[in-house]
Amino acid sequence: MEFEEKRKILIDSLRPNGIGNKVLDAMMRVPRHLFVPDELQGTAYIDMPLPIGYNQTISAPHMVAIMCELLEITEGMKILEVGSGSGYNAAVMAELAGEKGQIYTVERIPALALFAKENLKKAGYRNVTVIQDDGSCGLEEHEPYDRICVTSAAPRVPQPLIEQLAAGGIMAIPVGNGEQQLVIVKKDKEGKITQQAWGGVIFVPLIGEYGY
Ligand code: SAM
To answer: Measured from the CB, is residue 135 less than 6 Å from ligand 1?
Structure first.
């Protein structure tokens, strides 16, 4: 079966999780097999996390879909991702933000920052910038961000990320050690912060100044 056919079966299977057409269509446009190590391309369209080296993973497609759905990404947004990994989630967000959108994604491990950069280039994404750094401190240079997506689990929501979220912005971040909750942080137009737990998730730990 061709990659595209396998991708369609996978994306259709995500619909019952409450994922809307916008996110499903965006995921249909991203060739996930270009974001996994060559020897794992055959399993790229199974709904599970896959190893990408350095004890890290590309997240399962349903998790990417859920986070993108909760983030309510629209065209032209400026988005910060903490934890580039393979670059796949950044690519899906780039599809949702469109040509006028801008994605900044920060990765702690130098070899993975390079892996993400190369994968994004191979797949043709020009509006995604990969930065190698400790993303637990956010990325002051381009703040504020309309959306922040953290793809590793923090002990608590890092204060710099709250500060770098734009008024009206939304952040999705796994929080907790062992038992993790996906927390949705919203900043209203007046700067008031609300946090809501979405449900249990499993992510690798956020390592860094505001991480573990
Ligand atoms: N979003 C990724 C993708 O689409 O492939 C999956 C990310 S993986 C589950 C989590 C990533 O967060 C790992 O690559 C890990 O090295 C990275 N990470 C952990 N702590 C970090 C930090 N403080 N700053 C940036 N990246 C971090």
So the answer is: yes
What is this structure's pTM?
A: 0.98
152 catalytic residue (yes or no): no
> Which atom of ligand 1 is the closest one to the Cα of 206?
20
| 42 CA to centre of ligand 1 in angstroms | 23
The mean pLDDT of the chain is: 97
What CATH number was assigned to the domain covering residues 3-201?
3.40.50.150
CA dihedral 41, 15, 186, 188 (to 10 degrees): 130
Strands (E), 14-144: 50-53, 56-58, 78-82, 102-107, 128-132
Q: How, if at all, do strands 78-82 and 102-107 pair? A: parallel
What pLDDT, on a 0 to 100 scale, did the predictor assign at position 178?
82
